[in-house]
Amino acid sequence: MQRKRYIDLLRQIAIFYMFFFHVVLILLPETEINGVMRMLFDIVPLDAALFLFLVGFSLTLSLRKHTELSTVQFLSKKLVRGLLLILAAAFLFLLQLGVQLPDMLISSGILNTIGWLCIIGGLILVIPYRKILLLFLIVVLLVFTFVCEYYEIFIIPFNWGYEPMSPTIIFGLFGFLCGLFYNLSDNERQQKNIAVIIGANAAVLLLFFVWHGNLVEILRDSRYAIKREFSTAATLPYLLTGGSGDPGFFAAMVWNYRLPSFCLSLGVVCMLFSGFSFLEPFFKKYIPRAALLPGAHALSSYFFHFVVIAVLTMVFGPKSFTVWTVLLLLILLYAGSYLLSMLMAHIKRKKRTALSS
After folding, report:
1. Measuring CA to CA, which residue among 330, 294, 299 is closest to residue 312?
2. d(CA 75, CA 125)
3. Mean pLDDT confidence for 243-268
4. Which residues, 6 or more positions from 6, have their beta carbon under 8 angstroms from its beta carbon?
């Protein structure tokens, strides 16, 4: 099955935006975030939504890729992939923040959420009535998430912690549901109709928000802050130096969606998906596949950029960069992601050649 250029392009936009956000969030002092950089920083809820939506959408492609596998083999593959992502998230958390419990184990980062999405998706793909079951799961999660928000009930890792799982995982489940309708059909007309329906609903949702205020302000203000108090005695530099110096505490500030920012982000993501799907012929004609390699290997690029940021944080400390060093680092990260993606593509080609011979 041929890769869709528009999916790889959207993935690449999401992963490069994530590079920007994490570098600015972790390494740049708050007083240095101004102008265009501030605006891009404020609309970051769109990025997490887009990234998870695309992960969920792509999960349905795996069912067509692995038709030769038995149900047990397919489930095992998804379970192993999910567990590896959960372990990778814990490892990245360890590098950046140390052995901070329970966050390191159950609320460690977006890769942890994606890992659970892979496991849930694998289970849903092999059972009957999967669309109905998935829709039911989405509704239950939505209701429970926003009832908890309304009554200010916070549970780690559900809607609290260093990386709360909900409602972020719901973007992935929405993408998964769209993929079940879109990817499991070879009928182009049916696919276009589905894209039109998704886009039309998204347009209605966006018009509602445009009518009610400034979209950037809604994305910026319709969130709640999460403050996690962590011990410096659990960080890797402290542990590796044998506990030199007096331990203390530091705060990790993160955020989570409230209902308006969640709905607005979902509307923008669905509009992007619908619009880009109709531009697929244009992308195929004018964008070479090599230009979209980081999008095709988005999870590898994610892991790469976070390792680099974690190491720099350990060496120089958080909030220690200037605007110019941040811009230089971003250029190096973008270039590095291309080199890594080229290497990954080369390894895949060698594997395919070995299997065919």
Report:
1. 330
2. 9
3. 89
4. 276, 277, 279, 280, 283
